[in-house]
UniProtKB/TrEMBL annotation:
This is Kinase-like protein. Keywords: ATP-binding, Kinase, Nucleotide-binding, Transferase. Residues 251-538 form the Protein kinase domain. GO terms for biological process: mitotic DNA damage checkpoint signaling. ATP binds at K280. Residues 42-78, 215-242 are annotated as: Disordered. One of its GO terms (molecular function) is ATP binding. PANTHER family: OVARIAN-SPECIFIC SERINE/THREONINE-PROTEIN KINASE LOK-RELATED (PTHR44167), SERINE_THREONINE-PROTEIN KINASE CHK2 (PTHR44167:SF24). The lineage of its organism: Eukaryota, Fungi, Dikarya, Ascomycota, Pezizomycotina. Residues 232-242 have a biased composition (Low complexity). One of its GO terms (cellular component) is nucleus. Residues 67-78 have a biased composition (Acidic residues).
Length: 543
């Protein structure tokens, strides 16, 4: 449908009890009410050969109002053609209190749109209001209702009632999710903002800015969005502090950005402040018997992954916001739309050198707390390209806290980047330095290339396992290829660091903090003034 630039919102009934439909038809809403058209004729026609007069639609509401009185343009949609009853909210109609934006409720004195008269169940005098901020984002605020409001975006969270809450309905580029439904008790209406999208019509944009200037950014006496306490529903204690959906912040999944054996990762909208986050969901063990046996340990592992990131914050470690166990275990964390170091198009050698130093900085922080990542690989290094290049370490599903009395003995990680002592049959204990070897291989691959490893050994028959001797043969061959590639490089400051990192004996291998300190001393890195993160001083001049 095509709407005139004077149209701000279109509101239709969304419940099945005729509550919203009857509310839309109240006399107090008549200035914006548009009756449904189409269907069978409810009166005699003018004649079999006569054109039916077109519905009288004001050209200030809908584009295309210059059609003739007795014909309809073929192939051109009209707002009411076959549509349901609706309210078409236009900028040219004055609001009762522009500072409050568009107010909906049961009081004729304060409400621009009446959702029912006083006594309507679930509807307060000032139920909620719609505002637009200086960045042209559209918000819904429930600051004054007695009964609360639920906001469904894309069919999600329609039963999650909140009071004194705020929801983002649309960015300046338009809604992130396809359907906006607002629930007040059993009464539900659907909102559309047909002109609010990428490449807005200049006339609509001018009207929208006028709406903001008249005061419809947020109601007086209430905090702006930025002033709302975002920690009121957050969880900060992984084992016992999980938030329940009935009281926590509201998140709306936007799209799937990754999936694997563990579950899925979505980009998600945090309703209260409109921030895009990443939501990592986890699948339980595959069969019922295993689920019953391993369920507690499985859930404890997810709690641990959250706790590692939550309890040890660092600029180069993934930031997490919340962990929820129900209905599906989910960790909410920062969203990095630029991807990871394996798939993000990195055009500059300086970015690789920056990533090298920043990952060392993050590892040094974690290792000082006794935490080994154990699965370091480019896919687990997420990228932020603007305003300044930054890398964070993510995916701590295999991490483990190492102490003097607890040795890391599990065979885990991605083969190409695994330290020699991790492979079965090595006879060596391993510690935090496994991450240093892994990062050394990653950086060698980034800056100097590495050979292709042989195919990993396979069990000789079904039900059998690869023997330690087979693993040791493969690991010995692979580390020989890696070290040979390193020896072929001309000396420079980075090669010097890699020679301290890619040492077979873990006792002699440099630690992350030592590598970073040596690199800063030798002119590889410095701390940039804007944010204090590691950045390169060195240009290697590779082709």
């Amino acid at each position: 449908m095509y709407y005139d630039s004077n149209v701000f919102a279109v509101i239709t009934a969304h419940d099945t009890r005729n509550l919203a439909s009857s509310a839309l038809r109240l006399p107090e809403n008549s200035r914006w009410f548009r009756a449904a058209t189409g269907g069978v004729a409810d009166r005699p026609s003018l004649g079999s050969r006569e054109a039916t007069p077109a519905t009288d639609v004001s050209t200030s509401v809908v584009a295309g109002g210059n059609e003739s009185d007795d014909t309809e343009s073929e192939g051109e949609d009209d707002w009411a053609d076959g549509a349901a009853d609706c309210l078409v909210v236009t900028f040219d109609e004055p609001l009762k209190n522009p500072e409050n934006g568009l107010q909906l409720g049961s009081s004729p004195l304060t409400s621009d749109i009446l959702l029912g008269h006083r006594g309507t169940r679930g509807v307060s005098a000032r139920q909620y209001n719609i505002t637009v901020d200086d960045d042209l984002r559209i918000w819904l605020h429930d600051y004054h209702s007695r009964h609360g409001t639920a906001v469904s975006l894309g069919g999600q969270n329609g039963a999650e009632v909140r009071k004194k809450e705020t929801w983002l309905l649309a960015h300046a580029e338009g809604p992130l999710l396809p359907e906006i439904a607002i629930y007040s008790g059993k009464l539900a209406v659907k909102f559309e903002f047909p002109n609010h999208h990428h490449g807005m019509d200049p006339a609509y944009l001018a009207s929208l800015r006028g709406f903001v200037q008249r005061g419809g950014s947020h109601p007086p006496g209430t905090p702006p969005v930025e002033g709302l306490a975002l920690d009121s529903g957050q969880t900060t204690q992984a084992p016992t502090g999980t938030a329940t959906p009935a009281s926590g912040l509201l998140y709306y999944n936007v799209k799937t950005i990754g999936k694997g054996a563990f579950g899925q990762v979505y980009s998600a909208l945090r309703g209260r402040d409109g921030r895009l986050v990443a939501a990592k969901t986890f699948k339980p063990p595959p069969n019922k018997r295993k689920r019953g046996q391993d369920g507690p340990a499985w859930l404890a592992g997810i709690r641990k992954e959250f706790a590692i990131m939550n309890d040890h914050p660092h600029d180069n470690v993934m930031e997490v916001f919340e962990f929820r166990e129900t209905p599906t275990p989910t960790i909410y964390m920062a969203y990095y739309p630029d991807g990871n170091m394996a798939d993000a198009p990195i055009a500059s050698e300086a970015d690789y050198v920056t990533a090298f130093g920043q990952v060392l900085d993050g590892l040094g922080h974690l290792h000082a707390k006794g935490i080994a990542h154990r699965d370091l690989k480019p896919e687990n290094l997420l990228v932020q390209k603007a305003p300044l290049f930054r890398v964070v370490i993510a995916d701590f599903g295999l991490s483990k806290v190492a102490t003097e009395t607890t040795l890391l003995m599990t065979f885990c990680g991605t083969l190409k980047y695994l330290a020699p002592e991790v492979f079965p049959g090595s006879g060596l204990d391993y510690d935090l330095s496994v991450d240093v070897w892994s990062l050394g291989v990653i950086v060698l691959e980034w800056l100097y290339d590495i050979p292709t490893p042989r195919k990993a050994p396979e069990p000789p028959r079904a039900g059998a396992r690869v023997t330690p001797d087979q693993w040791q043969w493969w690991a010995s061959d692979w580390r020989g290829r890696i070290l040979g590639q390193l020896e072929d490089q001309d000396d420079d400051q980075v090669v010097g660091l890699l020679r301290g990192m890619l040492v077979v004996d873990p006792v002699r291998r440099w630690g992350a903090a030592r590598c970073l300190e040596a690199g800063c001393r030798d002119g590889v890195w410095e701390r940039r003034g804007e944010d204090g993160l590691v950045s390169p001083m060195l240009h290697l001049g590779h082709d």
